[in-house]
Design goal:
This protein has a 7-stranded parallel beta sheet, with helices on both faces. It has a 5-stranded parallel beta sheet with strand order 14-13-15-16-17. The protein has a 3-stranded antiparallel beta sheet with strand order 8-9-10, covered by helices on one side. It is globular and about 60 Å long. The model has no long low-confidence stretch (mean pLDDT 93). The protein has 9 helices and 17 strands. It is α/β, with parallel strands linked by helices. Helix 3 packs across helix 4 and helix 6 packs parallel to helix 9.
Length: 322
């Protein structure tokens, strides 16, 4: 029987949605395969493992170790490769997140495997599994097939819908004891910048601002609309460089790549590096004073006008509907 290993991600004890989307992706790769979820951390992960089962996994493996408190490719790699050796899966799937982008190429190189990264769609063509992924900063797409060996892939968040949660599902959860040792890199301390509201990488709605927001005070006005819509706030590289906001909000080729259902851009001109991070959004609304702004070329709806006037009108309209 074929078997697909799904590597989940738990942040501060909460599973990222892409963990569930990876299970759905595994089902698309091989509907009849046994789906085995793998979770790593330094605390008990049995509840999260059960949640993975409720979203479609058949069983789950958890690995708890002090050296897994913070992510390092060396520690996580040790565990994943040992589990792969024991389980001998026919496929491995993980989210194309900051961890997934760092971890999977190293495992692929160590195991001499092909890797399809950043897949946005998976479909069957006879016996073949065809992966679609963006190339050239999202200006084109390519289709790829793995001809031999393990099917190893990462999927872009918000592109493959998770299966419906079934709280009646049950499955075996095994806590595996793996000694994570001989690490050349040890993380002593992590200082995180707390961001309020919805996680940018997984948000269904994103409100983004650029240099057109003028200053940090102007940029902060985006949060009112975001709070009303249950959205996350993002930014262009220009806004980050101008100190309007932290670089953790940057969207683009050198920032986060996102695919929300709705993307509203205020005062963003549309440099190619920024478009690479959001051009696959399902609906794009652009607000800019410059009617020649590049972002209007990809926008589904464009508004030419003062960004602050339009922002205030949107806030008023949303409040009126609530």
């Amino acid at each position: 029987m074929s078997k697909i290993l799904v590597i989940g991600e738990a942040v501060d004890g909460t599973l990222r949605n892409v963990s569930f989307e990876a299970i759905a992706a595994a089902k698309k790769i091989d509907e009849g395969a046994e789906i085995v979820a793998l979770l790593l951390g330094n605390n008990d992960l049995s509840e999260q493992a059960q949640e993975m089962i409720q979203y479609g996994a058949d069983r789950a493996i958890t690995v708890q170790h002090d050296n897994l408190e913070h992510y390092t490719s060396e520690a996580y790699g040790q565990v994943v490769m040992e589990v792969m050796d024991e389980e001998e899966p026919t496929g491995v799937v993980m989210g194309h997140t900051s961890i997934g982008k760092d971890l999977t190429p190293k495992i692929a190189a160590r195991r001499d495997l092909g890797l399809i990264s950043d897949a946005t769609a998976i479909e069957k063509d006879g016996d073949k599994v065809v992966f679609t992924r963006p190339i050239y900063s999202g200006k084109a797409f390519e289709k790829k097939v793995i001809k031999e060996g393990i099917t190893f892939a990462t999927i872009r968040p918000n592109n493959i819908p998770a299966l419906e949660k079934d709280e009646s599902r049950s499955g075996e959860v095994v806590a595996k004891d793996i000694d994570v040792k001989d690490l050349r890199t040890v993380v002593k301390e992590v200082i995180r910048k707390k961001t309020e509201g919805v996680d940018l990488s997984e948000a269904n709605i994103v409100i983004a601002g650029g240099r057109g927001m003028k200053d940090a005070e102007g940029f902060n006005r985006l949060y009112e609309l975001a709070d009303l819509l249950g959205a996350a706030v993002g930014a262009s590289r220009g806004a980050c460089d101008a100190d309007f906001c932290d670089y953790s909000l940057q969207i683009g080729q050198t920032g986060k790549v996102i695919t929300p259902d709705l993307y509203i851009a205020f005062g963003i001109s549309g440099a190619i590096q920024h478009l690479a991070g959001m051009s696959n959004s399902k609906v794009i609304v652009a607000v800019n004073t410059d009617e020649e702004a590049t972002i209007f070329n990809i926008a589904d709806y464009g508004i030419v006008g003062d960004v602050f006037e339009v922002l205030d009108l949107m806030i008023e309209e949303v409040k009126a509907l609530q």
